[in-house]
Amino acid sequence: MDKSLQTVLESSIRNIKDYPKEGITFRDISTLLGDPRAFRRSVDELVHPFAGLQIDKVAGIEARGFILGGAVAHQLSSGFVPIRKRGKLPHDTVRIAYSLEYGIDEMEMHRDAIEAGEKVVLIDDLIATGGTAEAAVKLLQQIGADVVAACFVIDLPDLGGRKKIEGLGVPVRTLIEFEGD
Ligand code: AMP
Protein backbone atom coordinates (compact mmCIF):
# COMPACT_ATOMS: atom_id res chain seq x y z
CA MET A 1 0.00 0.00 0.00
CA ASP A 2 1.36 3.42 -1.03
CA LYS A 3 1.70 5.43 2.22
CA SER A 4 1.37 8.89 0.63
CA LEU A 5 -1.69 7.84 -1.32
CA GLN A 6 -3.23 6.47 1.88
CA THR A 7 -2.46 9.79 3.64
CA VAL A 8 -3.88 12.04 0.89
CA LEU A 9 -7.06 10.04 0.43
CA GLU A 10 -7.66 9.04 4.05
CA SER A 11 -7.48 12.65 5.23
CA SER A 12 -10.12 13.63 2.65
CA ILE A 13 -12.66 11.00 3.75
CA ARG A 14 -15.14 11.83 6.51
CA ASN A 15 -15.78 9.09 9.05
CA ILE A 16 -19.23 9.03 10.57
CA LYS A 17 -19.54 6.81 13.60
CA ASP A 18 -22.65 4.69 14.14
CA TYR A 19 -24.16 5.50 10.72
CA PRO A 20 -26.45 4.17 9.31
CA LYS A 21 -26.60 2.11 12.51
CA GLU A 22 -24.65 1.49 15.69
CA GLY A 23 -21.28 -0.19 15.26
CA ILE A 24 -20.80 0.89 11.61
CA THR A 25 -18.35 3.64 10.70
CA PHE A 26 -19.60 5.16 7.46
CA ARG A 27 -16.78 6.19 5.12
CA ASP A 28 -18.23 9.30 3.49
CA ILE A 29 -16.50 10.06 0.18
CA SER A 30 -18.52 13.22 -0.50
CA THR A 31 -15.64 15.14 1.15
CA LEU A 32 -13.11 13.33 -1.10
CA LEU A 33 -15.17 14.27 -4.17
CA GLY A 34 -15.25 17.88 -2.96
CA ASP A 35 -11.47 18.02 -2.56
CA PRO A 36 -9.91 18.76 -5.99
CA ARG A 37 -6.55 17.06 -5.22
CA ALA A 38 -8.06 13.96 -3.66
CA PHE A 39 -10.69 13.53 -6.38
CA ARG A 40 -8.16 13.90 -9.17
CA ARG A 41 -5.65 11.58 -7.46
CA SER A 42 -8.33 8.92 -6.92
CA VAL A 43 -9.37 8.98 -10.58
CA ASP A 44 -5.74 9.00 -11.78
CA GLU A 45 -4.92 5.99 -9.60
CA LEU A 46 -8.01 4.09 -10.74
CA VAL A 47 -7.14 4.80 -14.39
CA HIS A 48 -3.41 4.06 -14.15
CA PRO A 49 -3.32 0.24 -14.63
CA PHE A 50 -5.51 0.48 -17.74
CA ALA A 51 -3.92 3.44 -19.51
CA GLY A 52 -3.08 2.42 -23.07
CA LEU A 53 -5.19 -0.74 -22.88
CA GLN A 54 -8.35 -1.23 -24.90
CA ILE A 55 -11.13 -1.03 -22.30
CA ASP A 56 -14.51 -1.01 -24.03
CA LYS A 57 -16.72 -0.08 -21.07
CA VAL A 58 -16.49 1.10 -17.49
CA ALA A 59 -19.43 -0.11 -15.38
CA GLY A 60 -20.32 1.90 -12.26
CA ILE A 61 -22.51 0.79 -9.37
CA GLU A 62 -25.24 3.22 -8.27
CA ALA A 63 -24.69 5.85 -7.01
CA ARG A 64 -21.12 6.71 -5.99
CA GLY A 65 -19.74 4.35 -8.63
CA PHE A 66 -21.33 6.61 -11.26
CA ILE A 67 -19.25 9.62 -10.24
CA LEU A 68 -15.92 7.81 -10.12
CA GLY A 69 -16.72 5.48 -13.02
CA GLY A 70 -17.80 8.34 -15.29
CA ALA A 71 -14.51 10.14 -14.73
CA VAL A 72 -12.51 6.92 -15.28
CA ALA A 73 -14.42 6.14 -18.49
CA HIS A 74 -13.67 9.62 -19.80
CA GLN A 75 -9.95 9.21 -19.11
CA LEU A 76 -9.84 5.77 -20.76
CA SER A 77 -11.95 6.88 -23.74
CA SER A 78 -14.33 4.04 -22.84
CA GLY A 79 -18.12 3.92 -22.74
CA PHE A 80 -19.89 4.10 -19.37
CA VAL A 81 -22.55 1.63 -18.21
CA PRO A 82 -24.72 2.28 -15.13
CA ILE A 83 -25.65 -0.65 -12.89
CA ARG A 84 -28.75 0.47 -11.04
CA LYS A 85 -31.25 -0.53 -8.38
CA ARG A 86 -34.26 -2.38 -9.75
CA GLY A 87 -36.86 -0.32 -11.61
CA LYS A 88 -34.75 2.70 -12.61
CA LEU A 89 -33.69 1.75 -16.14
CA PRO A 90 -36.23 2.35 -18.91
CA HIS A 91 -35.28 -0.26 -21.52
CA ASP A 92 -34.96 -4.07 -21.57
CA THR A 93 -32.80 -5.16 -18.60
CA VAL A 94 -30.96 -8.12 -17.09
CA ARG A 95 -31.37 -8.43 -13.34
CA ILE A 96 -29.73 -10.17 -10.40
CA ALA A 97 -30.82 -10.57 -6.78
CA TYR A 98 -28.26 -10.29 -3.99
CA SER A 99 -28.31 -10.52 -0.22
CA LEU A 100 -28.09 -7.54 2.07
CA GLU A 101 -27.70 -7.81 5.82
CA TYR A 102 -31.48 -7.86 6.11
CA GLY A 103 -33.33 -9.29 3.13
CA ILE A 104 -32.46 -9.08 -0.55
CA ASP A 105 -32.11 -6.38 -3.16
CA GLU A 106 -31.91 -6.46 -6.95
CA MET A 107 -29.70 -4.64 -9.45
CA GLU A 108 -30.13 -4.23 -13.19
CA MET A 109 -28.39 -3.11 -16.33
CA HIS A 110 -29.61 -2.65 -19.87
CA ARG A 111 -29.35 -5.90 -21.80
CA ASP A 112 -27.79 -4.15 -24.81
CA ALA A 113 -25.31 -2.04 -22.79
CA ILE A 114 -22.43 -4.46 -23.35
CA GLU A 115 -21.68 -6.90 -26.16
CA ALA A 116 -20.29 -10.38 -25.49
CA GLY A 117 -16.51 -10.31 -25.24
CA GLU A 118 -16.22 -6.60 -24.48
CA LYS A 119 -13.58 -5.70 -21.89
CA VAL A 120 -15.14 -4.09 -18.84
CA VAL A 121 -13.72 -2.47 -15.69
CA LEU A 122 -16.11 -2.34 -12.73
CA ILE A 123 -15.93 0.67 -10.36
CA ASP A 124 -17.44 1.44 -6.96
CA ASP A 125 -16.35 3.62 -4.06
CA LEU A 126 -15.91 0.92 -1.41
CA ILE A 127 -15.77 -2.85 -1.01
CA ALA A 128 -16.90 -4.28 2.33
CA THR A 129 -18.32 -7.83 2.30
CA GLY A 130 -18.16 -7.82 -1.50
CA GLY A 131 -21.81 -8.82 -1.90
CA THR A 132 -22.69 -5.80 -4.05
CA ALA A 133 -19.66 -6.13 -6.32
CA GLU A 134 -20.11 -9.91 -6.57
CA ALA A 135 -23.65 -9.41 -7.91
CA ALA A 136 -22.43 -6.77 -10.37
CA VAL A 137 -19.62 -9.04 -11.65
CA LYS A 138 -22.05 -11.94 -12.06
CA LEU A 139 -24.49 -9.71 -13.96
CA LEU A 140 -21.72 -8.54 -16.29
CA GLN A 141 -20.38 -12.07 -16.81
CA GLN A 142 -23.92 -13.34 -17.45
CA ILE A 143 -24.21 -11.14 -20.54
CA GLY A 144 -20.77 -12.21 -21.74
CA ALA A 145 -18.59 -9.28 -20.59
CA ASP A 146 -14.90 -9.92 -20.00
CA VAL A 147 -14.55 -8.29 -16.56
CA VAL A 148 -10.87 -7.40 -16.50
CA ALA A 149 -10.87 -5.84 -13.01
CA ALA A 150 -13.01 -4.54 -10.15
CA CYS A 151 -11.69 -1.29 -8.67
CA PHE A 152 -12.55 0.57 -5.48
CA VAL A 153 -11.15 3.59 -3.68
CA ILE A 154 -11.64 1.98 -0.25
CA ASP A 155 -11.15 -1.59 0.96
CA LEU A 156 -12.40 -2.80 4.33
CA PRO A 157 -10.11 -5.85 4.32
CA ASP A 158 -11.47 -7.44 7.50
CA LEU A 159 -14.81 -8.04 5.73
CA GLY A 160 -13.31 -10.28 3.05
CA GLY A 161 -14.80 -8.76 -0.11
CA ARG A 162 -11.61 -8.99 -2.16
CA LYS A 163 -11.45 -12.79 -1.92
CA LYS A 164 -15.08 -13.09 -3.00
CA ILE A 165 -14.39 -11.17 -6.22
CA GLU A 166 -11.08 -12.87 -6.90
CA GLY A 167 -12.98 -16.16 -6.55
CA LEU A 168 -14.94 -15.14 -9.65
CA GLY A 169 -11.67 -14.84 -11.57
CA VAL A 170 -11.64 -11.04 -11.45
CA PRO A 171 -8.58 -9.14 -10.15
CA VAL A 172 -9.32 -6.50 -7.51
CA ARG A 173 -7.60 -3.11 -7.21
CA THR A 174 -8.13 -0.86 -4.20
CA LEU A 175 -6.41 2.43 -3.34
CA ILE A 176 -6.59 2.60 0.46
CA GLU A 177 -7.79 0.45 3.33
CA PHE A 178 -9.37 0.93 6.72
CA GLU A 179 -8.54 -1.97 9.02
CA GLY A 180 -10.66 -3.01 11.95
CA ASP A 181 -14.05 -2.35 10.30
P1 AMP B 1 -20.64 -4.70 0.37
O1 AMP B 1 -21.68 -5.25 -0.55
O2 AMP B 1 -20.76 -5.24 1.78
O3 AMP B 1 -19.23 -4.88 -0.18
O4 AMP B 1 -20.89 -3.14 0.51
C1 AMP B 1 -20.49 -2.28 -0.49
C2 AMP B 1 -21.50 -1.21 -0.80
O5 AMP B 1 -22.08 -0.65 0.36
C3 AMP B 1 -20.82 -0.07 -1.54
O6 AMP B 1 -21.68 0.39 -2.59
C4 AMP B 1 -20.59 0.99 -0.47
O7 AMP B 1 -20.81 2.28 -0.98
C5 AMP B 1 -21.55 0.64 0.65
N1 AMP B 1 -20.89 0.55 1.98
C6 AMP B 1 -20.72 -0.58 2.71
N2 AMP B 1 -20.10 -0.33 3.89
C7 AMP B 1 -19.84 1.01 3.90
C8 AMP B 1 -19.20 1.90 4.83
N3 AMP B 1 -18.68 1.47 6.00
N4 AMP B 1 -19.11 3.21 4.51
C9 AMP B 1 -19.61 3.66 3.31
N5 AMP B 1 -20.24 2.88 2.41
C10 AMP B 1 -20.36 1.56 2.68
Could you describe the 3D structure shown?
By secondary structure, the protein is an alpha/beta fold. The protein has a domain at 52-177: 3-Layer(aba) Sandwich (Rossmann fold). It has helices spanning 3-10, 30-33, 36-47, 64-76, 131-142, 161-166; strands at residues 14-17, 25-28, 57-61, 79-85, 93-99, 104-110, 119-127, 146-155, 172-177. A seven-stranded mixed beta sheet has the order 5-6-4-3-7-8-9, sandwiched between helices. Strand 5 (93-99) and strand 6 form a beta hairpin. The protein is globular and about 40 Å long. The mean pLDDT is 96. Adenosine monophosphate binds at residues 24-27, 61, 64, 124-133, 161.
Write a brief structural summary.
The chain is of the alpha/beta class and 181 residues long.
> Which small molecules are bound?
adenosine monophosphate
Which regions are unreliable across 5 or more consecutive residues at pLDDT < 50? none
Instruction: Give the overall shape, derived from the CA principal axes.
Output: globular
Q: Biggest β-sheet, characterized?
A: 7 strands, mixed
Q: What's the order of the H and E elements?
A: HEEHHEHEEEEHEHE
Separate helix tally: 6
Helix-strand layout with pairing:
Elements: H1 3-10, E1 14-17, E2 25-28, H2 30-33, H3 36-47, E3 57-61, H4 64-76, E4 79-85, E5 93-99, E6 104-110, E7 119-127, H5 131-142, E8 146-155, H6 161-166, E9 172-177
Parallel strand pairs: 3-4, 3-7, 7-8, 8-9
Antiparallel strand pairs: 1-2, 4-6, 5-6
